[in-house]
Specification:
By secondary structure, the protein is an alpha+beta fold. Among the domains are: 10-70, no CATH class; 562-585 and 605-738, no CATH class. The protein has 26 helices and 21 strands. A 7-stranded mixed sheet has the order 3-6-10-9-8-13-16, sandwiched between helices. A hairpin with a 4-residue loop joins strand 11 and strand 12. Helix 23 packs antiparallel against helix 24. The longest helix is centred in the last third of the chain and has 21 residues, at 695-715.
């Protein structure tokens, strides 16, 4: 789509209004959209009035004819529908019919005009033909003269069942009522939930059930498929009746103690290329990306480019898929008091543009690891099917039909990295994120102090990241009472890590205490618990970055530390009597040492603690805060004005507080020595969290963050510096390697 070129023409002014109506309707925002004028170039946000003025004064970017920043999708018809209701209804049906239309290019002018006329067309491969044939059968009308199809209706009904938590029996009753009483005779609906589920399974949208040992020792698959007990710990595969001692039965079938739901990856990757809407976007990183030195996408990163240089045969085919992996545990039930943790493993296809690859609808569910407990280090047992499929996709690939070019090609895939919060980072990487060597980036060179009274590890050694001639290196009294002469730890390469864990290969992973082999970290002088299963991938050791630190998880922990300490919240503050005794034992900051009066201690007020009136002002600021829709949740609900408490903050709330609100809220409340490093820390995360990153900015904040942490060390107590406060030293470098966080 495009506007008339002449800005003095009345048609241009009308076009501007139509563009604004279209953009606000398609993006779903209420206040601000990207401004596509020549001056802003889609880099700044503006209100409707501001964007309208800019377009009238400066004009729109000449080559911006595909409005992807404003909701336009590839293949969208040029004619506009003014009725929003018609648009919504037609879109839901068009999305389901899109893949079917790709089978018949003569009925779709968009494919005929797609610019691929010079390429020879090929017949879809066997797998694609089967899928298209099934889809065509399911696209029959729901009943005679119906405007909606059987498949469309079925998908919507199953979605409602899932969201409404209906039972299988109630869904079967609904289908029978619709078919027998409400719809005309001959309605093309299944008779039961089982038949409806079979339709989805035939389309390749189902999963495989793989039984697992109750102690996470092994999977009952391949040659072990017929076993009745674990060959490692001897535990029964089946649930046992408490009274009879026999295996539980349901309709004549035994019930497994644990079952992994595995969603095969190959058919899901093939589906990405069976529609022209997605197949053409899967080469965006190669065809449309602008290489101007600014990082907007993982394809702009050093890790991506290094991978291309090391594996030119893989990089030669832009349709080959690059994936990221994320996993974490969550409580799936409404009653949060129930102890249960289920672990989904999700894959992210990075071939898509940056505004699409992180959308939830483009995530690929890989598996659901059952609870009730976290798999811990034994998560590698459950990852075996995925790793095997990734190895096959790397070495052999799979025949895939590309609907946009009408050609078959050999599709390959690779896993670039994982993204996890810190505890899950330890489970996937094999490096324990606890103890004195908790930092996986510093590896064996992690520097920490054990606080005798607080019984915690303290990570205060950030002066080693300063220049060798910096005056703070010799300042004992302001820091931990020692001079700093160490150099900053070097990041280990994949080959070096592989050498460190070589002796752990073949280690049996299990939760059975009798079979589990305990690793002595003191004896090994490192924190490795296992050799990660990801090293089975041939290219894993050559990656610049294998595991990403989750920035938002780090932000939440740091925000909780700051708020708990400055507000002196009971149970959350890092400033306790034990902390003051640690200061006394370290012989630093004598003004904060506890004063013993009889059997009790009197704690002097610290410069980083807010007074009751300042606490009230901070709570009042957050209580009266009003932000645009979608900016954050209602933070005011987390504030208790009476007790001066802030509780119940989610990760995104802490993200917003740390990057935008704390610098405003604390201004004028605390002294400069306290406020300055806190504001610098907030600005660090603000720059790091931008959608567009520049290497110069990252190098600047990477050089500044050790200074900021050293300023905090001069003010806050040692117990404040847990490993989460230490990790910002590394995440700017990770952003340089992997792109926008």
């Amino acid at each position: 789509m495009q506007l008339v070129d002449n800005r003095l023409n009345e048609a241009y002014l009308i076009g501007v209004q139509k563009f604004l109506d279209y953009a606000f309707r398609r993006t779903g925002v209420l206040y601000e959209i990207r401004c596509p004028c020549v001056k802003c170039c889609n880099t700044t946000l503006g209100t409707r009035e501001t964007v309208e003025t800019h377009l009238n004064v400066y004009g729109i970017i000449q080559n911006y004819t595909f409005w992807y920043h404003h909701g336009e999708v590839l293949g969208e018809p040029l004619s506009e529908c003014e009725d929003d209701n018609e648009v919504e209804e037609s879109e839901s049906e068009d999305e389901i019919q899109e893949i079917l239309r790709d089978l018949y290019p003569n009925h779709d002018e968009r494919i005929a005009n797609s610019g691929c006329d010079d390429l020879p067309e090929e017949e879809p491969n066997v797998e694609a033909k089967k899928f298209y044939s099934l889809l065509r059968d399911f696209e029959k009308p729901l009943y005679q003269s119906s405007k909606i199809s059987k498949l469309s209706t079925l998908i919507k009904l199953l979605h409602i069942k899932s969201m409404g938590r209906w039972s299988n029996e109630s869904f079967t009753m609904l289908l029978k009522m619709l078919k027998e009483e409400l719809l005309p005779d001959g309605a093309n609906l299944p008779n039961s939930y089982y038949e409806a589920k079979k339709v989805i399974r035939d389309l390749g949208l189902s999963y495989h059930k793989i039984d697992a040992c109750v102690n996470d020792c092994m999977l009952y698959w391949k040659e072990d498929n017929l076993l009745d007990s674990c060959k490692v710990c001897g535990a029964s595969r089946w649930k046992i009746e408490k009274h009879s001692g026999e295996a539980k039965n349901r309709k004549g079938k035994k019930i497994a103690s644990k079952t992994l739901r595995y969603f095969p990856l190959k058919p899901r990757l093939q589906r990405l290329f069976m529609s022209t809407n997605t197949s053409s976007l899967m080469t965006w990183h190669h065809d449309e990306r602008v290489d101007d030195g600014i990082m907007r996408h993982p394809a702009d990163s050093m890790a991506w480019k290094s991978f291309d240089e090391l594996h030119p045969s893989f990089a030669a085919e832009p349709r080959n898929v690059r994936l990221g992996l994320a996993s974490d545990g969550f409580q799936p039930f409404r009653n949060s008091k129930t102890s249960y943790s289920i672990w989904p493993v999700v894959l992210i296809p990075y071939n898509l543009p940056p505004w699409l690859c992180m959308k939830q609808e483009n995530f690929i569910m890989s598996m659901l690891i059952p609870g009730p407990d976290s798999p811990g280090d034994a998560i590698d047992i459950y990852l075996q099917p995925l790793i095997e499929e990734l190895k096959e996709l790397w070495e052999f690939g799979i025949e895939t039909f590309d609907a946009s070019t009408r050609q078959n090609f050999k599709l390959r895939a690779s896993l670039l990295w994982t993204i996890n919060d810190f505890p899950a980072y330890g489970n996937l990487s094999g490096w324990s994120t606890k103890g004195k060597l908790a930092c996986p980036c510093c590896n064996k060179d992690t520097y920490s102090i054990r606080l005798a009274n607080s019984k915690k590890q303290c990570f205060m050694g950030h002066r080693c990241y300063l220049p060798l001639n910096h005056k703070w290196r010799n300042d004992r009294a302001s820091f931990d009472g020692t001079k700093e002469k160490r150099l900053p730890p070097k990041m280990c390469s994949g080959v070096e890590i592989l050498n460190q864990v070589q002796d752990l290969e073949g280690l049996q992973l299990t939760k059975d205490p009798k079979k589990r082999i305990k690793i002595s970290h003191d004896g090994r002088k490192d924190n490795w618990n296992k050799k990660s299963i990801f090293f089975e991938l041939p290219y894993w050791k050559s990656l610049l970055l294998r595991h990403n630190l989750d920035v938002m998880h780090i932000e939440k922990n740091i925000c909780d530390n700051i708020l708990g300490t400055i507000m002196n919240a009971k149970g959350k503050t890092k400033d306790t009597i034990n902390t003051r005794l640690d200061l006394q034992e370290m012989n630093i900051r004598s003004e904060l040492h506890p004063i013993k009066k009889g059997e009790k201690y009197e704690i002097p007020t610290a410069c980083y603690t807010l007074s009751p009136q300042e606490k009230h002002n901070l709570c009042l600021f957050l209580k009266n805060l009003k932000v645009p829709d979608g900016f954050s949740s209602n933070i005011s609900q987390c504030v208790n004005l009476k007790d001066h408490k802030i509780s119940g903050l989610k990760s995104h709330d802490c993200h917003v507080l740390l990057q935008h609100l704390l610098p405003l809220a604390l201004r004028g409340m605390l002294s400069k020595t306290v406020c300055e490093p806190l504001v610098e820390l907030c600005l660090f995360f603000n720059v790091l969290g931008a959608k567009v990153l520049r290497t110069d900015d990252l190098e600047q904040i990477e050089a500044q963050i050790p200074i900021t942490l050293c300023k905090l060390e001069k003010v806050f107590p040692p117990s404040f510096f847990d490993v989460m406060v230490h990790l910002p030293v590394h995440i700017a470098n990770e952003a340089k390697l992997a792109g926008p966080v």
